[in-house]
Design brief:
By secondary structure, the chain is an all-alpha fold. The protein has helices spanning 2-21, 26-43, 48-56, 60-76, 84-103, 109-121, 125-137, 144-156, 160-172, 179-191, 195-207, 214-226, 230-242, 249-261, 265-279, 285-298, 301-313, 320-332, 336-348, 359-365, 369-386, 396-408, 412-425, 432-445, 448-460, 468-479, 485-496, 503-515, 520-530, 537-545, 553-560. Helix 17 runs antiparallel to helix 18.
């Protein structure tokens, strides 16, 4: 064999020198050298399987010769060259076609196996399927390991069609499906995003008592998580862990990210525990923020606190977006002392000074009227007890949030009383927002009496100037009374202060006037038009349907041009 290789190498060298003297192109040199090699192999009656191996796995001298020729070809004409893999595949296909025609079915199992291995290494799925079919028809049925080799090659190249073609060949040859077939199919379907088929294959494997391989679980879990099947992915992962399968950090991170995006608490906490306790991974900050959002929504205070610790350990700069979910989770769980401690930590860092931070506190205190006062007083006592060590948490913003929750529960009289006692006990100055928190709650209760008392106290006792929110609350509560003339008084007071009511306030006044056939409805609409507020067709139709004449010149003008002056 070595002598035959040396002769081929010498023949190719002589041919190269002759072509160089005759100015033959380099590409022709390669073709002639390959042709000479094949012709000599055939002339020396080399067995077919050895010819295949010589093509797919050339000897050292042949590899050096071909490499030199290809390098010279690339230097002389790089655009005309073709990859060596294509040259090898052409030679292999040529040899196989010739052997099939000449042998007429006389190829042996070793020859077929050599061709099958060659096509598989060259990633030629069509060639592999052709060999498998010829083996079956030629009376040399492939064995299970040969099918497994083609299945693995098709799975690695993500060729689902080839997998199903191999399946048809296996069914035609009456070869039972083994674990390699199912695992190859499962990996390919998982990586190509065909999750429904992949999960069906997984269920079929469990039904046949065929345990999936460890490498087959990860693509399936990642695919399920990517396509919004987080609960199913978590179930598959737990089943795999129960069978002793170990996953890497990549699989846990993929499921963690999907669980955080879909706000799935159980899956996120499971993966988070594995990544932090087992792998000690450095989770991206974005996934930490998603976990804080989940903790705030579900009230998982332990998860929120642990995430904050991890952020501090990894030296991430803590900002308000990190603290707020922890505060919301503590409030959601009614852990008031811990919540005020977290609020104090935020205030010391310069965060949490706006009413938006304590919206969760307001919603938590908005409960049934029977329990509202008791709950509010309990939270207030906890706040007073925490003030000695955390003086920054006792301010008007915190008390306003608590007072608003009590008032929205329907206890406006109790809220008005605590507007005096709570603030005076902690020596906190009441603000306009303090009064507005109770005034806004008077509107759905139609309690104009409490609203007028609060407005009088704000003007006379605390010497505060009403803002837009206060005026609009007084207008709306007045419109709900049989005598709504005070609504126009507050409207004129707003204009005097240079405050422009919003569209909702004007529309409420217009509807109220139209309902009782008050001609001022058209004037309100005209004023809206002058302020460049849209007089919508629905609002105009409502005013026209109650008492106001459709022939009113003001309404006619508004109907023609409702959006501009």
């Amino acid at each position: 064999m070595f002598k035959h290789v040396v002769c081929n190498w010498q023949r190719a060298s002589r041919l190269s020198r002759q072509c160089a003297r005759r100015a033959v192109p380099r590409r022709e040199i390669t073709k002639r050298a390959l042709r000479v090699s094949v012709e000599e192999l055939e002339s020396q009656a080399v067995p077919v399987h050895k010819q295949v191996r010589e093509i797919v796995h050339p000897s050292e001298h042949t590899r050096i010769r071909n490499t030199r020729l290809l390098a010279q070809q690339a230097l002389s004409a790089p655009a005309a060259g073709r990859p060596q893999k294509h040259e090898t595949l052409e030679r292999l296909e040529e040899l196989y076609s010739k052997c099939v025609v000449d042998a007429k079915g006389a190829l042996g199992r070793e020859d077929y196996a050599a061709f099958l291995e060659g096509f598989s290494q060259l990633q030629d799925t069509a060639g592999c399927l052709r060999v498998l079919r010829d083996m079956r028809l030629g009376g040399e049925p492939p064995v299970a390991t040969q099918y497994a080799m083609v299945l693995k090659m098709s799975s690695d190249s993500l060729n689902t069609r080839a997998l199903f073609a191999v399946n048809e060949e296996m069914q035609a040859a009456r070869v039972a499906h083994d674990a390699s077939f199912f695992n190859s199919l499962l990996r390919c379907l998982g990586r190509t995003g065909q999750i429904e088929f992949g999960y069906a294959v997984y269920q079929e494997m469990l039904a046949r008592n065929v345990p999936p391989a460890a490498t087959s679980y990860a693509p399936l879990i990642a695919g399920l998580a990517q396509y919004d099947e987080v609960p199913v992915a978590l179930q598959v992962m737990r089943e795999a862990l129960g069978r002793g399968v170990a996953f890497g950090q990549e699989t846990y991170l993929a499921l963690l990210h999907a669980a955080g995006t879909r706000m799935h608490h159980e899956a996120y906490r499971f993966c988070y525990t594995q990544l932090t306790a087992v792998f000690e991974s450095q989770i991206p900050e974005g996934d930490f923020l998603q976990g804080l959002g989940i903790a705030a929504r579900t009230g998982d205070t332990a998860l929120a606190a642990d995430i904050v610790k991890q952020l501090q350990r990894l030296e991430y700069p803590l900002e308000e977006i990190h603290f707020e979910p922890l505060l919301d989770a503590l409030i959601h769980r009614a852990q008031w002392q811990s919540a005020f401690n977290a609020l104090g930590m935020m205030r010391r860092s310069g965060y949490g000074t706006t009413p938006a931070t304590l919206r969760t506190l307001t919603r938590k205190l908005t409960v049934a009227s029977a329990e509202a006062e008791r709950l509010a007083d309990s939270v207030y006592e906890t706040l007073c007890a925490s003030c000695s060590g955390l003086p920054e948490i006792a301010d008007a913003v915190t008390l306003n949030a608590m007072l608003q929750g009590l008032a929205q529960s329907g206890c406006v009289e109790a809220a008005m009383a605590r507007l005096t006692t709570w603030y005076d006990r902690l020596e906190i100055q009441r603000t306009v927002d303090s009064y507005a928190a109770v005034l806004v709650a008077c509107v759905p209760r139609r309690n104009k009496t409490v609203a007028e008392v609060l407005l009088s106290q704000m003007l006379d006792k605390d010497r505060l100037q009403p803002n837009k929110r206060v005026y609009e609350a007084m207008i709306h509560v007045s419109l709900l009374q049989p005598n709504y003339e005070d609504a126009f008084v507050y409207l004129e007071a707003m204009k005097t202060q240079g405050i422009v009511p919003d569209w909702r306030t004007f529309a409420s006044i217009a509807r109220r006037c139209a309902k009782v056939h008050d001609g001022r409805a058209s004037k309100v609409l005209d004023e809206m038009r002058k302020l460049k507020m849209a007089v919508t067709p629905a609002l105009l139709s409502y005013v026209q349907s109650f008492g106001c004449s459709p022939d009113d010149p003001t309404l006619s003008t508004i109907a023609e041009n409702p959006f501009t002056v």
